[in-house]
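=== RUN LOG ===
request id: a7f3
mode: sequence -> structure
chains: 1
length: 427
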Amino acid sequence: MRRSAKSVPVIAILMLISYVAAGAAEKGVADKAKTKDALYEQVELFADAVSALRQDYVDEVDSKKLIYGAMKGMLSSLDDYSQFMDPDEYKEIQVETKGEFGGVGIEISSREGILTIITPLAGTPAEAAGLKPNDKIVKIDGKVTKNMTLNEAVKLMRGKPGTSVTLTIWREKEVFDVPIKRDVIHVRSIKKSELIEDKIGYIKLVEFQENTARDLDDALKKLEAKGMDSLILDLRNNPGGLLDGAIDVSEIFLPKDKVIVSIKAKSPRQAEVFSSSGKTVHPDYPVIVIVNEGSASASEIVAGAIKDNKRGIVIGAKTYGKASVQTVIPMKDGSALRLTTALYLTPSGNLIKDEGITPDVVVERAVIEKKKKKDEVEEIFDKLEDESTDKPMKEKPADKTTVEKDNQLESAVNLMKAIRIYKAQEK
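=== RESULT ===
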């Protein structure tokens, strides 16, 4: 027997009504009734639209495709991070959490409907290709990314190691193609750990994983054994990772009972304050944290905890502003919902999402232009040839190449030296 046009979508949406209505019960019977009535009105409107589509649309309508499309639109209307994932997309997310996959190595987000690079991961093809935080991806292998979901973009960029993908990048006023050869992406927490100058320790932390705090603790002990008396913790271009990793890393530097981060949620049961246990505190040596626009999520939690508790100084550029909790809710058909269920607040109560962490000392990354050495030599010979032939000297435009100077790290080192001088005078 053929079911009515309304039956499929209405059953699916009524399940959602029950879920929402159950949640509304926490606010009281009156709010529950009001919410339920308003939702029923909108569901009726949706059912009417589906009925019209199935009755009058020129081609046969696939009910599953119709509902999936509606779910995608519904979730994307909430914020930049909530989304509906079909079974294939959900599998892609599960592959990513294993920490090793074939791709280009970038963390992406959607800002105002535009695919935006949060950061290229350290040691990946994306970093080697020169991609930068806040680059906009407008095409993937010639396919325009307008209205493309994050999972669709990830699927296009993933592939077998050794194969290539071309990203069309919009950076400031320029649009250009960047061909990238895919590779197996191994995600490691610590990229570099060393004494850089005058017993100043330097640790580059690139992602927060399950073992990040343990790896950091080991690295600190090794540097301390070499005489380290101060630390620069580099969180630039660190896209985040696990909340537990951020909390455990913050605990390494904070004494007992200091607030690390708090969670703001609709349900009081989800609201929580995370404080330090004081179990793994390292010596109270000076700490400077470097951040930039590619520092996001867990990185912002650590930077905010150190800054607000006055445990150290944060230097660099304002962070990305992506500290929110995404909860994945599997559906019975293998699809899933990824919902923003809570927001993170710094110890002083400041919202991180969209606001980011403003450093104590703002130092933007400097880009300098330098003449290529070969061009300087050629310019000298051109000049000598002109002089020997008594020809008037030619004005040759300088051929320059862009060179990035790590002035943020230099500023951190100089600031650390000043701090140590000041502390020595206090003794």
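=== NOTES ===
The chain has four domains: 7-61, 100-186, 190-363, 366-405.
The first strand starts at residue 83 and ends at 85.
=== END ===
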